[in-house]
User: Which sequence fits this backbone?
């Protein structure tokens, strides 16, 4: 997108997902997928924690906001409108092999996408959110 097309300086800042176990989410997204914890804030009066994680600075790269509600013990209803988070990797086949060895559930084996040639796969985070793995677009 050209700078002219984005006159108002809009950019994708973050996507928020609610999680039941913040440490399990940190393990999955940070230890397993290589993101970093950018900031974490507890809100005792609201009984929740917000953590922002990503691959780069919040000011430069989109990130994930993990919201942990302290009193939520059951799974969240994800509804039928939720799609997935997508993580790019150089080699989807190797990523899936590495992830499955770590116990990550692969829900769609790596291979060309239906009606296309781009290699994709899907796995699940600890809360059952779908995470697409794909290779960068070759331009």
Assistant:
């Amino acid at each position: 997108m050209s700078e002219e097309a984005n006159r108002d300086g809009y950019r994708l800042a973050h996507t928020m997902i609610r999680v039941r176990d913040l440490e399990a989410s940190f393990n999955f997204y940070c230890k397993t997928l290589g993101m970093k914890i950018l900031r974490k804030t507890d809100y005792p009066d609201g009984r929740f924690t917000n953590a922002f994680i990503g691959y780069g600075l919040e000011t430069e790269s989109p990130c994930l906001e993990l919201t942990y509600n302290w009193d939520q013990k059951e799974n969240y209803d994800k509804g039928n409108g939720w799609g997935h988070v997508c993580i790019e990797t150089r080699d989807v086949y190797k990523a899936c092999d590495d992830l499955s060895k770590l116990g990550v559930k692969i829900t769609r084996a790596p291979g060309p996408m239906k009606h296309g040639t781009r290699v994709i796969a899907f796995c699940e985070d600890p809360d059952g959110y779908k995470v697409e793995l794909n290779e960068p677009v070759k331009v």
